[in-house]
Design goal:
There is one protein chain. The chain has about 550 residues and is an alpha/beta fold. It has 4 domains: about 5-60; about 70-225, Alpha-D-Glucose-1,6-Bisphosphate, subunit A, domain 3 (Alpha-D-Glucose-1,6-Bisphosphate, Chain A, domain 3); about 235-465, Alpha-D-Glucose-1,6-Bisphosphate, Chain A, domain 3; about 465-555, Alpha-D-phosphohexomutase, C-terminal domain (TATA-Binding Protein, 2-Layer Sandwich), CATH 3.30.310.50. It contains 19 helices and 21 strands. It has helices at about 5, 10-30, 30-45, 50-60, 85-105, 110-115, 125-140, 150-160, 195-205, 230-235, 260-270, 305-315, 345-355, 375-385, 395-405, 430-450, 455-465, 480-490, 545-555, and strands at about 70-75, 115-120, 145, 165-170, 180-185, 220-225, 250-255, 275-280, 315-320, 330-335, 340, 365-370, 385-390, 410-415, 420, 465-475, 495, 500-505, 510-515, 520-525, 535-540. The strands form 4 sheets. Strands 1-5-4-2-3-6 form a 6-stranded mixed sheet, sandwiched between helices. Strand 12 (about 365-370), helix 14 and strand 13 form a beta-alpha-beta unit. Helix 3 (about 30-45) packs across helix 4, helix 5 (about 85-105) packs parallel to helix 7 and helix 11 packs across helix 16 (about 430-450). The longest helix has 21 residues, at about 10-30. The protein is globular and about 65 Å long. The two termini are about 25 Å apart.
Length: about 550
């Protein structure tokens, strides 16, 4: 430790500067609850309370950056949290980028075409959405605000219908209850990708969050949409059905306290099915998520109430949306009467089998991500169609679908193992509602054929081998995660749990490293783009799940 760091006068200067930044933020903060929270923290910091100083330093240590899915953080005061000042800064940066794109000719009439905005039920989502519209209006940019609470797929779908220049949805998706977030979509209905995210981020960084011009709530450039776009989206969903002649089966469903419940009921009925059987306790939107500590269908325990409902109701399958309804979780009954939650890859295999069996043409394209199962490629090859792997994050699947369309390839399925699925060509982002309808059809077809959903998976195993996948998360700060990946790349282990590493592949654009082991197993490591953790992924054929779990744990122990 340097002498400068130990110098008490230097430490006081740092604390003084930190408190000065916090006070300036406090003076600009428009919300009383956030002001009170920050006032309490500043007062404690002024007494040299170490916890308060550490908290304050963390909140003002930099600026929230666009990750895998835009901005996400806890709702609280500070430049590293989600609050109205951060949202206004982000909206101003997005608006300036749109004006620059219009000036360069890259996006025609961007200000006139405007931005579609929507929000979910999380804390302050409504004011974040309205502030986005007000900031855009101050820049002379039109906005179109969806009414009430809107599923992310409806927002993304409406962008192209409204011919907007961009879209914004205020949501933290499946993050913990304290969080909120900010997703930005392109005019195509796909999420922003590099280098656009960097370009927008640079413009956000040039904006002073404490001094963002903002228009009145009734500014003429802010248009309030009605429910017709939700209705139009619902009317489009039946197009995903490939066997509309097959009658439906009972489906249990949870909205996970999110915003998908009403829309999915409408979509099922429009598609010729009965409305799903809801988990009543989780059906209405509630940003406090009273029955789940982590509203993510991937998390252990999150689907417990769904499984109880499925078993009690005699459902054929159990489906779960995450809170903004762009992801789809699933469970199926077992011969002994229990229910088993499927992995994201297993759901993806079921979609691939059904879609490729019930469509035709060698121009078809299926896409998955680097960390998802390689079985999709083998299924695609068996059907004689194109398959691609791309970077982690569904935005890359949307980008690839657009690029391959120019080459005459017809996108029919995209999926990532983190429960993201796209089974149509609009919107170009994951859609847990249309995917739920198609999965209900898959279950109906299985019943009509006299087999179970487990039989469908077993048939794929018989044809291609029993693929096993596993995941492990290690909670560490993002910077340490990136360092860990770099260390593996620079000095990869010779073996993992006694099995030789025969190849190392690096994907710097995805901040991912892949180890191939003797015998065919592959292990991958990457920092999460939305949470402070590193994710490890494993895949092998013909081994026991516990063996693959042990390999991931052994790799994690090398950190």
């Amino acid at each position: 430790m340097s002498d400068e760091t130990n110098d008490p006068d230097h430490a006081v200067d740092d604390v003084a500067a930190l408190i000065e930044r916090a006070v300036a933020w406090l003076e600009a903060e428009p919300d009383g609850d956030i002001r009170r929270e920050l006032t309490t923290l500043v007062d404690a910091a002024r007494t040299d309370n170490p916890d308060a100083l550490a908290d304050l330093a963390d909140r003002f240590s930099g600026r929230l950056q666009f990750g895998t899915a835009g901005l996400r953080a806890a709702v609280a005061a500070g430049s590293m949290r989600m609050n109205r000042l951060v949202v206004r800064q982000a909206a101003a940066g997005l608006g300036q980028w749109l004006l620059d794109q219009e000036a360069s000719g890259a996006i025609e009439r961007a200000a006139e075409r405007g931005v579609v905005v929507a929000c979910d039920a999380r804390r302050k989502s409504d004011v974040f959405a309205l502030d986005t519209c007000r900031v855009l209006a101050a820049l002379g940019i039109r906005s179109m605000l969806h009414p009430g609470l809107t599923p992310t797929p409806v927002l993304a779908w409406s962008i192209t219908g409204l011919e907007a220049a961009a879209g914004v949805v205020v949501t933290a998706s499946h993050n913990p209850p304290a969080d909120n977030g900010y997703k930005v979509f392109l005019e195509t209905g796909a999420q922003i990708v590099t280098p656009i995210d960097t370009d927008i981020s640079d413009r956000i960084g040039a904006v002073d969050p404490l001094d963002v011009p903002i228009a009145a709530e009734d500014d003429h450039l802010i248009q309030r949409l009605d429910l017709s776009w939700q209705e139009a989206y619902v009317a489009s969903v039946p197009q995903v059905r490939l066997r509309p002649d097959v009658p439906g089966v009972p489906v249990a469903y949870t909205a996970m306290h999110g915003v998908g419940g009403e829309t999915i009921e409408m979509a099922f009925v429009a598609s010729g099915f009965d409305a799903p059987i809801p988990v009543v306790e989780q059906h209405e939107p509630d940003g406090t998520f009273p029955t789940v500590s982590f509203p993510n269908p991937e998390e252990p325990g999150a689907m417990d109430l769904l499984l109880e409902t499925a078993q009690a109701s005699g459902a054929a399958i159990a489906l779960a949306n995450d809170p903004d309804a762009d992801r789809l979780g699933m469970a199926i009954p077992q011969p002994d009467g229990s229910w088993r939650r499927l992995s994201g890859d297993e759901i993806g295999w079921l979609f691939a089998d059904h879609i490729l069996t019930n469509t035709s043409g060698d121009d078809r394209l299926v896409v998955t991500t680097l960390v998802s199962s390689s079985l999709l490629g083998r299924i695609a090859n068996a059907h004689g169609v194109h398959s691609e792997e791309t970077f982690t994050g569904f935005k890359w699947i949307g980008k690839l679908a657009i690029e391959r369309a120019a080459l005459g390839q017809r996108f029919v399925l995209g999926y990532e193992q983190a429960l993201g699925y796209l089974v149509t060509d609009r919107p170009l982002d994951k859609d847990g509602i249309s995917a739920a309808v198609l999965m209900a059809e898959i279950a109906a077809c299985a019943k009509a054929d006299g087999v179970t959903m487990q039989d469908r998976l077993d048939a794929l195993s018989a044809q291609f081998g029993r693929y096993v996948t596993a995941e492990l998360s290690v909670r560490i700060p993002p910077s340490e995660g990136a360092e860990w990946v770099a260390a593996i790349e620079a000095n990869p282990p010779a073996d993992v749990s006694g099995i030789a590493v025969v190849a190392v592949e690096s994907y710097p654009e995805a901040n991912l490293v892949r180890l191939k082991l003797d015998g065919g197993a592959r292990l991958q490591v990457r920092p999460s783009g939305t949470e402070p953790k590193v994710k490890l992924y494993g895949e092998a054929v013909g081994i026991e799940p516990a063996e693959l779990d042990a390999l991931l744990e052994a790799l994690a122990a090398t950190r």
